[in-house]
Amino acid sequence: MKKSGVYVRQPKFQVADKSQPPVLFPLLDPLFNSSIGELIIHWSLMEQNLNLLVWALLQANHTSEGGWRYRPFEKRYELLRQEWEKFAEGYSVLPTFLNEVNAKIRSCKILRDSIAHKEMILGLMEDGDHSVQFYNETRAKQKSKRYYLKDFTAAVEAAREAAGWLYWLTDPTSAWPLPSEDTQRLRSLPSVDHLRSPT
Hints:
The structure is a single chain. It contains 5 helices and 5 strands. The chain has helices spanning 30-61, 73-88, 99-117, 149-169, 180-187; strands spanning 12-14, 23-25, 119-124, 130-135, 147-148.
């Protein structure tokens, strides 16, 4: 393949037997494959721990909210934000404690969603670096910006840290850097240990 900056959308393939379907290989540095997998895995862990925190907050706030687990991510996140606001009201640090989580989620969500839901365009740039674009969901088939390996690596780290923060908030053994009143408030959350899947 020429390093002309032109994207080759069809993957390479290997055919051992013409009577069988071919085995396809993406035209992409193998390092991308592990980053893509890690991003999906850590996003899944993040959602799992987000759901656990929502459950705990609903119990603590005595809120009845049927069917919330089946809502799209943004609606569940908005429910988390609302319930956290109720739970943290009147405390000195807790009200802003989710800001870090939100920043990490926002920094990796577009790339994660693109991997999960959009058509990927693979190829080499003129400098020889592998990169990825996605077709946006429009009739014009507009392309997204180019993502390089460093972008995938950063997104993996953000998803990993967001998952860790959400786990941290529901772990009563954590040593949160908070005033004692805020710490006691966090410790009042119902335990989610019986709901937590092995991670």
